[in-house]
Please model this.
Amino acid sequence: MALITISRGSFAGGKAVAEELARRMSHPVLGREEVLAQAARDYGIAEKELTGALNESPPFWQQVPRARMAYVKCVTAVLLQHARQGNLVYHGHVGHLLLAGIGHVLRVRVIADMEMRVRSAMQRAGMGRDEAIAYIERVDRDRARWARLLYGVEWDDPHQYHLVLNLGGISVGGACDAIARVAELPELRPTAESRRRLEDLSLSCRVWAALARDRQARSAGVQVVADDGRVTITGSVGSSAAAEAIQRIAGGVDGVKSLQCEVGVGTDWYW
Model:
């Protein structure tokens, strides 16, 4: 069975679809909010700082994008921890990007017209009409900038998804029926290759996340690639102590069979 990611805008109904789908399929369901909370706990990052980094696009992140990427890798490591256990329904606005390259991920986007979203915000969050419109427009704008900055894509581009479902035209139950049918397609079944890619991505993200926890090892220039337990780290750091810390920390991550550290000392660093 495919892993299912449901991309959702604020108050568009994606959470309701995910929860009902998971109930029908007897799959665990995981939301973006739960992933952020676990990432904050597991990697010692203040949840407010982590949430802000993933929600907003201030000039700092445009100047030092890999600083933000460290947070993204922590979040992805948590998501993959759950995905490795098997069936999963995840709802969050860029789950399909976090799991890019894994063949057995069914990518779904749930949308609704602005009027429906505004009514939902007013009912569920107690917002006034003008406040609800301003909030939805701001969140959509920030998420679009985020996807563009880190991945170079438009998050609402339908070409990124297998399914785009408009809750203004179909019910939550109808949306779940459609997703469940598509999830059974043979093209979305796990293969040896797709499982290997999931494991490689999970390991590289766990190494990234371990490095992000250590002040000496945090480096803007570092890239981590995993291939069947063989990990290669390239880039530059600010000191020889940081380079030594990277090798020590990465080598201690569970699942690393061998480590090739090609990190040099330079000026491309942060923190």
